[in-house]
Amino acid sequence: MKKTIVRAVSTAAFLSTVYAGSAYASEYTVEKGDSLWKIATKYQTTVSELKKLNNLNSDFLQVNQKLQVPAPAQPVPTVAASTTASSTSVYVIKSGDYLGKIAKQFNTTVNDLKSLNGLTSDRIYMGQALKVPGKTETPTPAPAVTSPVESPSTSVYTVVSGDTLSKVGVQYKISVAELKKLNSLRSDMIYVGQKLKVTGKATVTTPTPAAPVTPPVEPTKTSEYTVKSGDTLGKISQQYKMTLQKLKELNGLKSDMIYVGQKLKVTGESAAVTTPAPAPVTGGPAGDFATAFIEAAQSVMGVPYVWAGSTINGFDCSGFIYYAANKAGYKIGRYSAAGYHSRSYYVDQPQPGDLVFFENTYKVGISHLGIYIGDNQFIHADEKKGITISNLSNPYYTAHFDGFKRFY
Fold first, then answer.
1. Which of 43, 205, 233, 263 has the highest local Cβ count within 10 Å?
2. Where does 153-199 sit in CATH, by number?
3. Mean pLDDT for the chain?
4. 317 catalytic residue (yes or no)
5. For the whole model, what pTM was predicted?
6. How do strand 386-391 and strand 401-407 relate by DSSP bridges?
7. Has domain 207-267 been given CATH number 3.10.350.10?
8. Among the options 248, 368, 405, 406, which is catalytic?
């Protein structure tokens, strides 16, 4: 008789537990067009709480997926629910918001805000719903739900010729500061083919601004020119009887740097070409200069590497070229690696005394150079060894190799 009573009590306790559990959560079936943010707003909770309740690792949902959601509070918790409703409300994050700004707006601290929303970092995103102290402003959440659904996550944009961070920012309605933060960029420099994270969708199709620009320049006659080895902007502008500034404006270029295979818009027709004037030098740099250039370079073997150095006390890569060239009788200014790159032309069959360039070493673009001495070897300023000879078959130099060039 005693055993029967014990079982009856256990069953009753079990049923009451099940009932109590179902009072706090119910099941929701995902419909077409749903997102975690939309469901969280509907059930007056946050995305992070919804993910925690369903053990979700991402924001991805499928139609007909079953989710546990907080049920509307009815039995015992009524008093607690009404208390929280009166003391907290939901705030939808807008562009330019950060936790410190929101905390100040609602007279609270960043730590309290993170604790209230179960956040482990200061990172928030546009369209996210946060619990904040104060009364709920009913009209705010409902109308704002529809637009942010498109951009809860980021997309990838590939940089094209003529792009700048501000141009990409305007296109995606994001500030340069936000764009740099999103991509961990320390400077405004970007390069063609670079992948950038952006938010939302592009508001402007690139051709749209281009259409009004074309008519004022030269409405009828624009053609395309493919950059060849040895070309410079000055050389191309002269060939097509354009000013350098016009050529840069027409192609949205911010610098004089161009690369082989690049497509450029030009106006008019090409003038009679006497362009290959410098290129016919097939025997390499002038014999006397090449010999003197290499001898001057070898005379300082072992001199240590010094950033921005151009004396026998220490050299960097461009300072070394400046020293050796001037010693060999070729009077040239002190430039960066990119500066010497723009003052030389490509050669297909390198000779001792030619320059060899490398790109994307410690920074994007042309960033290192040396003097070719034959047999696949070159002499240069190495950060660890100072002035030394290296082999172009070294995997590092092969991966960063740009090409052989010769002083104009």
1. 233
2. 3.10.350.10
3. 78
4. yes
5. 0.34
6. unpaired
7. yes
8. 368
